[in-house]
Structures are given as C-alpha cells and as structure tokens.
Amino acid sequence: MDEPAQGPVPASELRVSDAEREVTLAALREHTAIGRLTMEEFDERADRVLAAKTYGELALVTRDLPDLPAGAVGQRPAPSAAAVPDGPRRQVSWMVAIMSGSRRSGRLRLSREVNMISIMGGDELDLRDAEIEGGQATITAISVMGGSTFYVPDTMNVEVTGFSLMGGNTELGVAAAPAPGAPTVTIRTFNLMGGCTIWRLPQEARDVSLHQARRLAKSARRGRLGPPMPPIPPGPGY
Fold it and tell me: How far apart are CA 8 and CA 46, in angstroms?
C-alpha cells in the first residue's frame, strides 16, 4: 500500500544554518547597543539563538523587536531618542562616595565613560540589568582609603587594568566564556590604600538579591575548583 503523500514542510520548521544564527546574533547586538535590550536579556536571547534549530525558533527570539534599518546590522548606530525603550532609564556617568557610600543598580544606562571616586567610602555598581551604550564602556575607578565594587554577568567581556599602592583588586566568582557579541566593559583602577572588587555572577544570579548573588558566585567558584583536598594525616613521630 502506497504511503500518503506528504505536503511541503512549513517554512517555520525548516532548519537554520550557523550563518543565519549569526545574522540574528548581530541584530541582537545592535538592539542591545541602542538600548532595547539589557545585558541580561541579550545573554538569555543569545543562548536561545545558539540553541535554535528551525526558523520558527529563531523568529521567536526577535518577535518583539522592530526591524533594523537597512545596513544597520554590524555598524552599531548611535542611540537616538526613538531608540530608547519606554520607561525611565537612569544614565550613569559619575559616582562619588566621600566618607559615605553610593550604589547604582537596576535598569540603568551606562555611559561610554564613567568616573567613580571613593575617598574613605565605597561605590557599588550592579551591571546585571544595565544597558551598555554603544556596546562598550570604560570605567575609571579612583579609590583613596576606600573602594569600589562591581557586579557583572560572568559572560560579559570585562577587562581590568590599573595601578595600586598599598591596595589592590580582587576578582571573585568564575569568568565564563563571553557571550557572542557581548558588550565590553574596561575597568581602570587607581588605588591608594584602597581597592576594587569585581564579582562575576553566574546566570542563576540574575534576578536575586546581591547577597544571594554573592553566595551563588562563591558556589560557582567552589564548583569550578572542585572539593577541598583532604587533610594530610600526621606521619610517624607526631
């Protein structure tokens, strides 16, 4: 008995190629650069793009995003007023803590150049839900008998440079492989009897408190390093 003829495969069920996934990733990078997506949203969608097998799965990732102008992908156009999503976005370009503390977190827009000054105080900057203007930002953190603390997704490109005198920088957590096309944040530190702490937070720490996020980062580091070595038993004569 002949098998019934099968109709054509719907377009949404056709398989996608690596090149087509890369086109979608490039579009996500542009939407992130102009403020439509936060870093967390970019990371989540990039994972879905890399796992997509069909056109239908790929289309779901960008269904709530408008089409980009012709030629825009890959050129990272400058943000415009029309490109800013609805709702207030606090732009961060300066943070100052003198014998006190300051903290910025939530949905904020990070300028290309950010200056942080801590004098006998501390600054905290949470970048889990930040929008990186233009896909790149440079943060200059100056600490005098104080310090700065940064919370960054572990898939973000983070470069740390600088100079310390009677102080230093500490990186906690585990740096994962950067997401394709992830924004780059350069942290330049200048410490005098002070320091800078960078917490690299895993994906599980996206929507939790900073206290819980720090615990998850420590757990991720312990998991990467493995269990502690057992103590060496005492030898003869002890």
Answer: 30
Nearest to 25 by CA among 146, 178, 227: 178
Q: Where are the domains of the chain?
A: 12-65, 92-224
Q: Say what the pLDDT of residue 134 is.
A: 77
| CA-to-CA separations, 147 to 124, 150, 164, 196, in angstroms, rounded | 9, 10, 12, 5
- Cβ contact 137:159 at 8 Å: no
Note the pLDDT of residue 5: 57
In this prediction, residue 238 carries a pLDDT of 36
pLDDT computed for residue 227 by the predictor: 45
Cα gap 198→157, rounded to integer Å: 13
What secondary structure, in 3-state letters, does 175-211 show? Answer: CCCCCCCCCEEEEEEEEECCEEEEEEECHHHCCCCHH
pLDDT at 115: 92
d(CA 234, CA 238) in angstroms, rounded, equals 6
What's the CA gap between 15 and 57, in Å, rounded?
10
Profile the chain (238 residues) by mean pLDDT over runs of 10 residues: 65 84 84 79 84 88 82 43 43 83 84 90 89 86 92 89 90 80 89 92 85 88 53 44
Cα 207 from Cα 47, distance rounded (Å): 17
Contacts of 86 (CB under 8 A, 6+ apart): none
- Rounded Cα distance between 194 and 11, Å, is 59
| Six-digit token string for 76 | 């990272």
